[in-house]
Design goal:
This is Thioesterase. The protein is of the alpha+beta class. 22% of the residues lie in helices and 38% in strands. Strands 1-2-6-7-8-5 form a 6-stranded antiparallel beta sheet, with helices on one face.
Length: 140
């Protein structure tokens, strides 16, 4: 199946429907079954102890999965997360962006399943791994 939206269209759509996180995320790479999305780490993403917060890493995983699903199905703002499991494996760097690489494992009529691996740009080992399931609204 081909892409319904390219990286620029995805970012424009995300900026329109989620203006509260405008500037937080960028698409680095996009193909039919994989997207690499960047969290542009800022002071607001940090927690005490000099690391990126868990909620910020969750947001990256969720945004990457959402963008991957939208890239395939098109502009469908009402696709929603129905399940998430995230493993925080090591401390990310406070001064480095995070990259979430999302692989689309299954895209059905009503559900999509994605796996996301998150790295700090200055570390080889992953800092977190997430599995996300999205519900896709029926076509009316």
């Amino acid at each position: 199946m081909s892409l319904q939206m390219d990286a620029a269209e995805l970012m424009e759509f995300l900026d329109d429907i989620f203006p509260q996180v405008r500037g937080d995320f960028e698409v680095d790479d996009l193909s039919a079954n994989e997207i690499s999305m960047r969290l542009c780490v800022q002071e607001k993403h940090l927690r005490p102890g000099g690391t990126v917060s868990g909620p910020s890493m969750f947001a990256l995983a969720d945004c990457a999965a959402y963008a991957m699903v939208l890239a395939r199905i098109g502009r469908e703002a009402l696709a929603v997360t129905t399940n998430c499991s995230i493993d925080f494996m090591r401390k990310p760097s406070a001064g480095a962006d995070l990259i979430g690489t999302c692989k689309l494992l299954k895209l059905g009529r009503s559900l999509a399943v994605c796996d996301i691996l998150i790295h700090s740009v200055d570390q080889d080992a992953p800092v977190a791994r997430a599995n996300m399931t999205y519900s896709i609204p029926p076509k009316c």
